[in-house]
Amino acid sequence: MSFKEVTVLRKSLKLKEAYEMASEDLLLDPTDVWSKRAMAWVLYAFMKENSTVENYESFVLYFNELIALELPSDEEIVFSSVGFQIGSIVFALSKQEGNTEPKIVALFELLKLLAIPVKTDSYSFVFKAFHKGFKDTVHYLDFVDWWGLENFRDEDYNMDEINGKQIISVVEQTYIAYSKRLVLTKPILFSGILVIPIGGTVSLDTDRIQSFFPYLDSIINIHPEYQYPLYFKAKLMLAIGDRANLLTVFIPFAKTKRNDFWVWDVMSEIFDEKDDNKLACLCKALSLKAKDDFLIKVRTRIIPLLVAKEMFAEAKFELDSVIEQRLKNQWKIPQNLVALQETDWYKSAATLNNNKALYKTYKII
User: Fold this and answer.
1) Residue 189's Cα: distance from chain center in Å?
2) Does the predicted TM-score (pTM) go above 0.85?
3) Which of 29, 189, 276, 323 maximizes the CB count within 10 A of its CB?
4) How many CA atoms does the CB half-sphere of 298 hold within 13 Å?
């Protein structure tokens, strides 16, 4: 057995010679753990050398060879070292233009066969890489479930700093991304904050949502400084139709963000169409300072509520505001809004300069 000789060659960067010697040892005794270990370190060196986008195919080739060794799970140093190289190439792929998703998926399939020890620097590094690569894809939930939310290290719960700017912890980022994928909607950027828009649900994994609630409850209780888990718990409860305790969950979050229009927009979803609280929430949203572009959806949602109350002048003001803003931005005007301009109530309604009186009249009960 030539473990020492293979090690010397590897450390001398004579990887081809080291590989050939390790291969010969494995042919003599494919079950010898020392021979496997020697080859594993050689393959690790090759992976490190090829952990670039350009050398992806070579990286995968050596990765497959490493898996084929069937090393025992207690080879933690090898696995941890390999984990850093996997994370490096996934990060690199995530920065590339074009569709690199299939390549990242292929690496994930191999990763699942590797026993990287949990709650280690390597395991967290791998998570951060795939979090970046998968967070906007259908693979995100499967990856997080495999990795395990319980496997974050203590330091993963702390805020990070990038280029001198503090950002929320990777844990809170994960809970946000996981929640968004559970309702499968496209996030919208409002004032630098990613917010789930109203509607747009493609499908709903109710069982997965129910399994996620205990994790959300735990993070809410242990880390009350996190702002968004409460918000997303409310969104998920709304998505599955669990309105019984929805206000109790959402109000603590709303209090911290009460000056943000979209908080009231979301709260309005809790109430039925005939409940004045729904109208009050939308009025509150429209009374707050925000760019006109951002208020288009709120104005659109309030119009039918006003028409139902025969508040035609107020409804006309909101409709005109929506159309004016869409024209200003050269956005398409939906046919249903065009049709509203042809209705009798619209044509006979008075023209208002603003709706400030309306916004002050309806207050949340």
Assistant:
1) 13
2) no
3) 323
4) 27
For 239-278, write each residue's pLDDT tens digit.
888 877 788 888 887 888 889 898 899 889 888 888 999 9
Coil vs helix vs strand at 79: helix
**Segment 137-161, tens digit of pLDDT:** 999 999 999 999 999 999 999 988 7
Rounded to an integer, what distance in angstroms lies between the CA atom of residue 111 and that of residue 126? Answer: 9
User: Is residue 284 classed exposed, middle or buried when 0-12, 13-18 and 19+ CB atoms within 10 A define those classes?
Assistant: buried
Spatial contact of 246 and 259, defined as CB atoms under 8 Å apart: no
- 284 touches 278 (CB < 8 A): no
Structure tokens given for 21: 């010697």
Residues 6+ apart with CB under 8 A from 60: 106, 107, 110
Which DSSP letter does residue 128 get?
H
Q: Helix, strand, coil shares of the chain as percentages rounded to 5?
A: 65, 5, 30
Two structure tokens written together for 323: 């159309």
- Residue 213 in tokens: 């609630």
Residues 6+ apart with CB under 8 A from 38: 2, 3, 6, 7, 22, 25
Provide the phi-psi class of 270: left if phi over 0, else alpha when psi is between -120 and 50, else beta. alpha
316 phi, psi to nearest 5 deg = -65, -40
Contacts of 25 (CB under 8 A, 6+ apart): 1, 2, 3, 6, 32, 35, 38, 39
Q: Residue 214's beta-bridge partner residues?
A: none
Q: Exposed, middle or buried, 151 (CB in 10 Å: 0-12/13-18/19+)?
A: middle
